[in-house]
Amino acid sequence: MVKKVVTAVMFLAVLSAGALSVRQLRTGSTTVTACGSPCVKTTACQAPCLCYIVSGTTGLCQPEGPPPPPDLRRK
Predict the structure, then answer these.
(1) Cys bridge to 51: 9, 39, 47, 65, which one at CB 3.0-4.6 A?
(2) Is it true that the peptide bond before 69 is cis, omega within 30 degrees of 0?
(3) Residue 61: strand pairing partners
């Protein structure tokens, strides 16, 4: 009898852990980046900033408005 109860509890624990994992995979993780920090296209910037791509795939979180001009200095 005790063995059946333990087996049922273990089964329910595995089932609920699997359901939590599926939910976390569907929602994904969103990190909010502060204004003035580097970002990529998929990064969420803290309001009221948006990610403006400066070169390639990286950019900066800037307040809403036109994107900053490109940096033409040689590196």
Answers:
(1) 39
(2) no
(3) 51
